[in-house]
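BACKBONE GEOMETRY TOKENS
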Amino acid sequence: MDKQHSMAAEPSDREVLKVLESRRESTTGTVNTSGSPDVSLLPPEDTNTRLVLREAVARNAPVSFAVQLQWSVRPIDVKDVPRHPLFQAYALYAAEGHRAGRTWFFLRLGFFNDALSAKQVAQYLRADFASAAVVPVSPEERQQVGEKGRCPEAATIARRPA
């Protein structure tokens, strides 16, 4: 049994992230991510998203990524975020998730078709957002952001259920 087939049965969260990190939208195989070695690919904060990603990897289905610019235990006011010209090309939005009994708030920029593209943008934004990282997002989060549209402050709110 080959490695890809055996992973499809029950990949761990770490294996899923490794596969997602090495994927490119238009190619198969591993890509060189040396252009952004200090940008982390974070695991999703909720169980449902991790399950959706596990299924997507097993089916070799596309996955979307966002650059997570900030996170906090308090809501993030998008109006206080330093503006960047790159925000015009993507959806800047606030999201909310729950982990270990605590609500977390995120400021994200999306969406990207592969982790490398997201990492390159995160690296570019590091001057203004020192903790920028990349996170795979669920189709539901992407859909919520799309349905909300952009508000005048270039922000969209996506909220996830507990």
